[in-house]
Design goal:
Elements: E1 17-21, H1 25-37, E2 41-45, H2 48-54, E3 62-66, H3 74-84, E4 89-94, H4 100-107, E5 112-115, H5 121-167, H6 171-186, E6 190-197, E7 202-209, E8 219-220, H7 226-233, E9 237-239, H8 250-253, E10 262-269, E11 272-279, H9 287-331, H10 338-350, H11 357-368, H12 379-383, H13 388-394, H14 397-405, H15 415-420, H16 441-456, H17 469-479, H18 486-499
Parallel strand pairs: 1-2, 1-3, 3-4, 4-5
Antiparallel strand pairs: 6-7, 6-11, 7-8, 9-10, 10-11
C-alpha cells in the first residue's frame, strides 16, 4: 500500500477529505479504514440522505459511493455532489459483475468505478489518489482561468481608464483619474500621486489622492523617501511595511492603513518626475499589481507632460489674446472696451447653452477677438464719417480676422466665431450669407452680444444716441428670427435681466 498521502496543494484543505457512502456497514468500515490509513480525513455514512445534507456544509476532495442503495442511488448522490462541489470527483462501488451500470455511471460524469466482487484496497486508494490529482489539476486550471480573466478585466480597465487619462486636458482632473484608476487596478485602500521638482532638495510641487494634508510644498533632503527612490531609480519599490525601510520618510511616504503592503512606481516622462503610491491590500501587492501600476504611471506621465505643455500654451494664448485686444483698442479708440464687454455678455449666455468648459472658453476668446480684423483697416474707415465705401471696407474685417488668426493653431477653434459673427439668421448677412443653424453657434451668440453692446455704447461723434438696456433688448426681440437666432435672443434677455448687476460696463 502507498505511504501516507500528502495533498498536492497544502492550502486546499478539502483535498484531504473523502466522503464514503455505503448502506452496508461492513463494506463502509473497510473502505473508511483503508482511506484513513492512507492519510485522508474520512466521513462515512450509511444513509445517502445524511451524506447529501453534509454537502451543504463541507467540501470533499473525493466521494466513494455505493451504486445501489435504498432511497437514493449512488448516481443520485453523485449528482448531488457534482451540483454542490463541481470539482469533487466521484468513484462508485458496484457489486454487479457486468459493466453496463459502471459505464452508465461514467457517462454521468463519475470519475471511475471499483468492483466489490474483486475488491482490492490498494487499487481503491490509487483510484482515490488519481481522483484527487484530477481535482487538483481542474482546480489549478480554474484558478489559472480566473487569473487570466481577472488580468484581462484589469487590462481592459487599464486601457479604458488610460484612454480617458490620455485625453484629459486639465492636470487636476487628470490626477483625480489616475488615483481612481490605481485604486481600481490594485484594490488598494490608499492611493496618492506626488509630482517632484528635482534640485539640491526635492520639492513636492503637486499631490493628489489620500493623506495629502501637509505634503505639498515639502522639501526632501537627498536620499530621503521611498517615493523619491522609486522616482530616481526608475524602479518600483514594493515592501510589506514601508516604515521598516531605512529610506522611509513620514513626510512623503506615509499612507496609513491597517492592511499590509506599500508599492510605489515612477511617474517619469520629459518634464514630469514623480511617484504613484498605493498602500493597504488584504494580501499585499504582487508582481501583477506592479506591472499594471507601471503601465498606468507611464500613461499618466505622458498625459501630465502634455497637459503641462497645454497649460503653458494656454497661458501664452491668453496673453497674446489680451495683447491683440489692447492693440485693437488703440487702433479703434471709438470702440475701446467693446471686445471685452462682448466677451462678458457672451459668457453670460453660454452658461445656459449646455456648453462644456472647453466650448465656453473657446466662445469667450472668439468673442474677445471677434473684431480683431479691424487692426488691418485704414484709420479713415475706423475714425472717419460713414459712407458706402467705408461700409464696404468695414465688411472685410471678419475675413481679415480669419486670416490674421488662422496661422496660429491654438486659435483654430475660434475662427468660425470670428468669421461668422455678422451672419444673419435669415441668410442676408456677411461674409458667406449663411442662414439659421448653418451659422456656427458661437457666431450666433456673439452676433447678439455684439449688437446689444453696439446699441448701448454708441461712440461719441457717431451721431447716434446710445440706447438704454431695455430699449436695446426690445430691438433684439424685434429682430429675433430675422437677424438673430430666436433662442439666443430669448436666453440673452433672460440672463441680462437677471445678471446685469454683475456685468462690468
Amino acid at each position: 500500500m502507498d505511504g501516507i498521502w500528502e495533498p498536492l496543494d497544502a492550502a486546499d484543505a478539502a483535498a484531504r477529505r473523502v466522503l464514503v457512502v455505503d448502506d452496508e456497514p461492513g463494506m463502509l468500515g473497510v473502505v473508511a479504514e483503508l482511506l484513513g490509513d492512507a492519510g485522508y480525513e474520512v466521513r462515512a455514512e450509511t444513509d445517502p440522505r445524511v451524506a447529501v445534507e453534509a454537502l451543504a456544509e463541507t467540501e470533499f476532495g473525493a466521494a466513494v459511493v455505493d451504486l445501489v442503495m435504498p432511497g437514493l442511488t449512488g448516481l443520485d448522490v453523485a449528482a448531488a455532489v457534482q451540483k454542490a462541489w463541481p470539482l469533487t470527483q466521484v468513484i462508485v462501488l458496484t457489486g454487479h459483475e457486468g459493466v453496463d451500470s459502471a459505464v452508465a455511471a461514467l457517462q454521468r460524469g463519475v470519475f471511475d468505478y471499483v468492483r466489490k466482487g474483486a475488491f482490492d484496497g490498494a487499487q481503491l486508494v490509487k483510484v482515490v489518489r488519481a481522483a484527487q490529482e484530477r481535482r487538483s489539476l481542474l482546480r489549478s486550471n480554474q484558478e489559472l482561468l480566473d487569473r487570466v480573466l481577472e488580468s484581462n478585466e484589469l487590462l481592459r480597465v487599464l486601457v479604458e481608464r488610460g484612454t480617458g487619462i490620455a485625453r484629459a486636458e486639465h492636470a487636476d482632473r487628470l490626477l483625480e483619474m489616475v488615483v481612481d484608476a490605481a485604486r481600481r487596478l490594485t484594490g488598494a485602500e490608499r492611493v496618492r500621486v506626488q509630482l517632484f521638482r528635482p534640485g539640491r532638495e526635492v520639492l513636492i510641487e503637486e499631490v493628489a489622492g489620500d493623506a495629502t494634508e501637509g505634503v505639498r510644498g515639502v522639501r526632501l533632503t537627498p536620499g530621503e523617501g521611498l517615493a523619491t527612490l522609486a522616482a530616481e531609480s526608475d524602479e518600483g519599490v514594493c515592501v510589506e511595511a514601508a516604515e521598516a525601510h531605512p529610506r522611509y520618510s513620514r513626510r512623503c511616504d506615509a499612507l496609513p492603513s491597517a492592511k499590509p503592503g506599500w508599492l510605489a512606481v515612477p511617474l517619469h516622462h520629459a518634464s514630469i518626475q514623480g511617484a504613484l503610491i498605493v498602500a493597504g491590500r488584504r494580501d499585499g501587492f504582487h508582481a501583477q499589481h506592479q506591472l499594471l501600476l507601471r503601465g498606468l504611471a507611464r500613461i499618466a506621465a505622458v498625459a501630465l507632460d502634455r497637459t503641462r505643455a497645454l497649460e503653458q500654451a494656454d497661458n501664452f494664448f491668453t496673453h497674446v489674446s489680451a495683447l491683440l485686444v489692447s492693440i485693437l483698442d488703440r487702433v479703434d479708440q471709438s470702440g475701446r472696451g467693446h471686445s471685452r464687454r462682448v466677451a462678458a455678455l457672451s459668457d453670460m449666455v453660454s452658461r445656459r447653452l449646455g456648453m462644456s468648459d472647453d466650448e465656453r472658453r473657446d466662445l469667450h476668446f472668439g468673442a474677445l477677438l471677434h473684431d480683431i480684423g479691424k487692426i488691418h483697416l485704414p484709420p479713415e474707415v475706423l475714425d472717419g464719417p460713414p459712407s458706402e465705401e467705408s461700409e464696404r471696407v468695414m465688411r472685410e474685417h471678419p475675413r481679415l480676422g480669419l486670416e490674421l488668426l488662422r496661422p496660429i493653431t491654438r486659435f483654430e477653434r475660434l475662427l468660425s466665431t470670428v468669421h461668422g459673427h455678422h451672419e444673419r439668421w435669415d441668410g442676408t448677412g456677411y461674409p458667406l450669407g449663411l442662414a439659421g443653424e448653418e451659422i456656427p453657434r458661437g457666431a450666433r451668440v456673439v452676433a447678439v452680444a455684439n449688437a446689444f453692446d453696439g446699441m448701448t455704447h454708441q461712440p461719441a461723434g457717431s451721431g447716434e444716441p446710445s440706447l438704454a438696456p431695455e430699449q436695446a433688448l426690445e430691438r433684439l426681440q424685434e429682430a429675433a428670427g430675422t437677424a438673430f437666432d430666436p433662442l439666443i435672443v430669448r436666453l440673452f434677455m433672460a440672463e441680462y435681466r437677471q445678471h446685469r448687476h454683475v456685468l462690468v460696463d
